[in-house]
Design goal:
Largest sheet: 8 strands, mixed
Distance between the termini: 83 Å
CATH architecture: 3-Layer(aba) Sandwich
Strand order of the largest sheet: 1-2-4-3-5-6-7-8
Number of helices: 13
Length: 315
């Protein structure tokens, strides 16, 4: 009996030490935006006051472009996901990219409202402040869902629409990144508020790439750091609750704006059958499928995807 008790104590001690070690290795509390901005907001980044927030954005390229491009990133991403497109386009176009509320360096909505209608009003406020009356709006994933919603809410402000692996229809994912799954478990909120295993971020990013070998340390650093921006983790949980996939999807068929649909054939989060559905529902839309790319094709292969965008804008 003594041997059994001793073995049990040893097992419990080893378990507690393992838990303590895991916590120590993965302890990642929120970081202030000022600390993160040193690395992730170099020029031409700027911050503008909108709706009680300091919105992180970049306004690049030709000043004489009458209809700039507005680029909207997806869930847990940031304006950095568009850097390849921006570099390719700024010689010929004005390009505006920004961190949506709840993500990147912008941080959470002060009122905690993450419904699509609020995001759409926020975009209108940004464009009003920048004195931009009309845009070509492109969005990836959640940013794509916001893009088509904005085109419905503000049709006079959207000249063309570009949907890149966009959300919109009821979810039919065949694989969901582990970070997204954990963020939707309410009981884990207190734990995940201060823990963020780098391995989880690495796995989540690889999950959305067609070729996981393209994911390097610098890319994982960016996603890991910006997730730790104060307030972002709580905002992500609220956004999943308040802006569910499939909300108002019946309205997609109301869109009449010229639309380009770009999709990664290896997207398992929003599979390619969603692209076909967008094409059927949006009259006159054009679909370009990249068989080898994943959920963020503009980040995974910016040159090939931006070429399709250029052709669409030239027509």
């Amino acid at each position: 009996m003594k041997h059994l008790a001793r073995a049990l104590r040893t097992t419990v001690l080893v378990l507690l030490l393992g838990i303590a070690g895991f916590i120590a290795l993965n302890w990642a509390p929120d970081l202030p935006v000022e600390e993160l901005a040193e690395r992730w907001a170099p020029a031409p980044s700027q911050f503008i006051a909108v709706d009680g927030m300091q919105v992180h954005l970049r306004d690049e390229g030709r000043r004489d472009d009458p209809v700039p491009l507005l680029l909207l990133h997806g869930t847990s991403a940031s304006l950095h996901t568009w850097e390849g497109w921006v570099a390719a386009l700024t010689a010929e176009r004005r390009v505006i990219s920004l961190d949506l509320p709840g993500f990147g360096l912008t941080g959470p909505f002060p009122d905690g409202d993450y419904r699509l209608a609020h995001y759409s009003r926020f975009l209108a406020q940004v464009l009003d402040q920048m004195q931009v009356p009309r845009v070509v709006v492109a969005g990836n994933s959640f940013g794509g869902q916001l893009a088509w919603r904005f085109a419905l809410d503000q049709p006079q402000r959207v000249e063309r629409l570009v949907l890149v692996d966009a959300a919109g229809y009821p979810r039919n994912a065949t694989s969901v990144p582990i970070g997204f799954r954990l963020a939707q478990v309410p009981g884990l909120a207190p734990l995940m508020a201060n823990l963020l295993p780098r391995s989880m971020i690495d796995s989540s990013v690889r999950n959305v790439y067609g070729d996981p070998d393209k994911v390097d340390e610098a890319l994982v650093d960016r996603y890991h750091d910006l997730t730790r921006r104060a307030g972002n983790r709580q905002a992500l949980r609220q956004r999943f609750v308040q802006a569910p996939s499939g909300e108002d999807h019946a309205r997609i068929a109301e869109l009449t704006v010229p639309t380009l649909i770009l999709w990664g054939g290896q997207d398992r989060l929003i599979p390619p059958d969603n692209a076909e559905r967008f094409q059927r529902d949006i009259a006159g839309s054009r679909l370009v499928l990249f068989d080898d790319l994943g959920h963020v094709p503009q980040e995974e292969d910016p040159l090939r995807t931006v070429a399709a965008l250029r052709q669409f804008l030239a027509n």
